[in-house]
Amino acid sequence: MSTRAQPRWIGPRSRHPGRAGVLAFINLIGFSLWSLTGCAHYHLGTASRLAFATVYVAPVENHAMLPQAQSIFATEIREALLKDGRVSLVAGPETADVVLRVSLAGYDRQMAAANPADTGLAMKFVLNLHTTCTLTDRRTGKPLFVNRAILVSRDAYTQSGQLQAEYQAVPLLAASLADKVAHAVLDVW
User: Fold this and answer.
1) Any idea where the domains of the chain sit in the sequence?
2) Full-prediction pTM beyond 0.85?
3) If pLDDT is split at 50, 70 and 90, which confidence band does 122 have?
4) How many helices (H) does the chain have, and how many strands (E)?
């Protein structure tokens, strides 16, 4: 027989060895219930009610030097309004609660970075699109807002040529504009 000494644990002994595990489990359940009460009143999306349910988006007016841009911008604005889900779009102004008119007022570019080999050549442009929006309540004839100015900007890198870079940036400008227009129309004032 071996007379090897058994290691002894020195410290206070609990009368109930499983008690610590039960207390930890009860604390975990209590903390979980306490922390989940904060989520009890959470609602997905916005709970705000709009004063209108249907929107007619008039054809986009193009006063900017941006040829054939009306359809791209109108499509993006309609999709952004539909994505929110609080309003529906109608085909004509006579059945709409409100009418949205968007006008592309101006388009310009600013040189943001020059080619290091030739400082007269731009490597990057900032494209700015200036727009105005008017939202009119068709039922009362009163405007909810008139000529609200919205500016959207995008960078265009000219490695593939300035014309190609601007052509590729137009859908990005349209998506940014659509997002801002949707917020202007759907945010509760």
Assistant:
1) 54-186
2) no
3) confident
4) 3, 6
